[in-house]
Amino acid sequence: MAGGIRRNAGSLPEENSEINIVPFIDIMLVLLIIFMVAAPLATVDVDVDLPASTAQPKERPDEPVYVSLQPDLSLHLGEEAVAREGLGVAIDGLTESDRETRIFLRADRAVDYGDVMDVMNLLRDAGYLKIALVGLEKTQGAEAGTGTAAADGADEAGVGDEPRPGASAAPEPAK
Predict the structure, then answer these.
(1) What are the φ and ψ backbone dihedral angles of 50, each rounded to 5 degrees?
(2) Which of 43, 47, 50, 46 is nearest to 116 (CA)?
(3) Class of domain 52-158
């Protein structure tokens, strides 16, 4: 039709509905780097010289509760120092009073067995019966206590679990 009205005059070009892969990959790489940097920061960083063990490691929970016993007999819940009298209340706040939560006890090699048992009795008195002792994994050909095992190779021998070679369950507290 001559001199007629053009229907598509000045219309926008068709939109491209395909996903742009390059910006997507850039964002994924940035997220990967952020998680790689942040992951080591989520571990407990209280310096404890752990004894070595030959027990098989157990699977670590998503958010483990660590109680650390230093050579000077000070206690830490995670990375925060806590008084012996307030240990049960502090753990209750962290676990929302879930008594079925497994508590991982990290005691320095220089701490006497009796002092470790005192802390275990504090945990039992607070109602936490699932206590795991944490130690370094003993590597073949390495002496116990050389500290050659990686921190992620920490070994947990749980109280109340079946004893395994090289792991011992703690005795019941005195009544």
Answers:
(1) -80, 145
(2) 50
(3) alpha beta
For residues 48 and 68, the answer to whether their CB atoms sit within 8 Å is: yes
The rounded Cα 148 to chain-centroid distance in angstroms is 20
Q: In angstroms, rounded to a whole number, what is the distance separating the alpha carbons of residues 169 and 53?
A: 13
Determine the pLDDT at residue 174.
Answer: 45
Mean pLDDT, rounded, of the chain: 75
DSSP string, 106-158: EE-TTS-HHHHHHHHHHHHHTT---EEEEEEEPPTTS-TTS--S-GGG-EEEE
pTM: 0.51
Q: How confident is the model at residue 70 (pLDDT cuts 50, 70, 90)?
A: very high
Task: List all residues 6 or more positions away from 106 whose beta carbon is below 8 Å from its beta carbon.
Answer: 44, 46, 48, 50, 66, 67, 68, 69, 134
Domain ranges of the chain: 52-158
Residues near 55 by Cβ (< 8 Å), separated by ≥ 6? 135, 155, 157, 164, 165, 166, 167
Q: Strand 75-77 vs strand 65-69: parallel, antiparallel, or unpaired?
A: antiparallel
> pLDDT per residue over 2-49, tens digit each?
555 556 556 667 777 787 889 999 999 999 999 888 887 767 667 777
- Measured at the CA of 101, the angle between CA 98 and CA 104, to 5 degrees, comes to 140
Q: Which residues of 140-150 are buried (b: 16+ CB within 10 A; e: fewer)?
A: eeeeeeeeebe
